Amino acid sequence: VNFQDELFLLDCGEATQMQMRKYNIKFQRINHIFITHLHGDHYLGIMGLLFTYHLLGREKTLHIYASPGLRDIINLQIHLSGCSLVYPIQFHPLNHSLSEKIFENDKIIVETIPMIHRIPTSGFIFREKQKLKNIRIEALADENPSHDDFENIRRGADFISPNGKIYPNDDITVNPPPSRSFSHCSDTLFSDSLVKYIKNSDLLYCEATFSKDKADKASEKFHCTTEDAAMLAKIADARRLIIGHFSARYEDIDLNSLLLESKNIFPNTELAIEGSVFNL
Amino acid sequence: VNFQDELFLLDCGEATQMQMRKYNIKFQRINHIFITHLHGDHYLGIMGLLFTYHLLGREKTLHIYASPGLRDIINLQIHLSGCSLVYPIQFHPLNHSLSEKIFENDKIIVETIPMIHRIPTSGFIFREKQKLKNIRIEALADENPSHDDFENIRRGADFISPNGKIYPNDDITVNPPPSRSFSHCSDTLFSDSLVKYIKNSDLLYCEATFSKDKADKASEKFHCTTEDAAMLAKIADARRLIIGHFSARYEDIDLNSLLLESKNIFPNTELAIEGSVFNL
Of A255, B14, B32, B264, which shows the fewest CB atoms inside 10 Å? Predict the structure, then answer.
């Protein structure tokens, strides 16, 4: 997730660093890595990335949000490598059984979503905070508001001039663009219980490991089908859906039929093809 | 190492399985994996490979020869993944401080070489066993040797016919092709002490992390320069040398000058370019 040129990495499978190089992603800008769960395809690339940062002389703290076991995996491998990293890691152990706020800065919040999978797993929601209103400067051309006045107006206050003239807030501001949200659900069984967390997401990524005819297999493996993902997007009133995490049984040529299965239920579906960029 | 269509894997860096797919290496034929040491670039791809074998329903035992710590790394990650592999792993912990025979079948032997590196490290030598002589059938055209006679002749015995005629072994056999050997030295500081292990190797792979002008850096990091590798090949009377493991500071365009530095000392040097095949 690229938010104002700070990068947030969601999961880190084997060879993620090679892929980031291939797609010219400036991975030195990553300060926060979120790992959904400890199946290999979701985290095996993290050690290589940690060692690469070490070799590159990284200085900034790297924050890792993951199952507590990942800390053991990382510490054991650093210990056995005989080196100590030249930069600090701050590890944030996740409680996968509930939804909690795990990150906040002045612009965004990240919360977890309890997924339903074979091992403890969390999805993640990125929410922009409520933005301040924009001031229509021309409506205050006769006045000379202070810095504090501007801040108060942006938060919704009316402006009262030194001579007592009242400018109602609605007359001197325009509403900010709506706050956006992105939900990442991987890996999980379909369940209505997820809807409350991801309601009204502007963009929902949901795994769709199997085609609709493999619903039994999906239940057995605690994964979604193409239809499960689409149903989740529909019930949650998402604006757009990205499906991915397709089983290795599907060749590139099969992906269009997977897409169509989702689109039949939720037309605004796209495929998570490697290297794709989704703007929000 | 491909020996009669059985594959032996030496080290397994991140994305090794992707590279094996790219170069059409039938990695289901690998039954033995040898890991030199626990720096990430030498082993971080093994977990992904183990999980892939699991997904592919492997049945055969996989033998892993490595530092004891790798067993902990593997077991921890299997445990946290919540799955148990569908095939057995037999782990062979290495004693990096000495040379020992760690593998033998009817055709080859694999021994370790104690390397000199920042953490415990072993190189490996693959040696073909002494082959049996080939029988010149036409020289025994008047006789009717038994199966046992043939075996004895191939091992060097004369043949004595039922009527007492002696066929000296040299007259009825030709020598087998010489037994071949391949030595793999990575990662290590240059040292004369390595020579006795790798003497007369038909093919020597030696790391050459740095160019000759970076000898100080090489010593500091316990690595070889291009000249170190060439000197090792020369003193050990190797037939051919492959150099590789070049520092990331070198671009592809620099490799030819690295090669020339080695060739100045040991002319029969080649570069370990990804995807290259060296026949022996």
Answer: B264
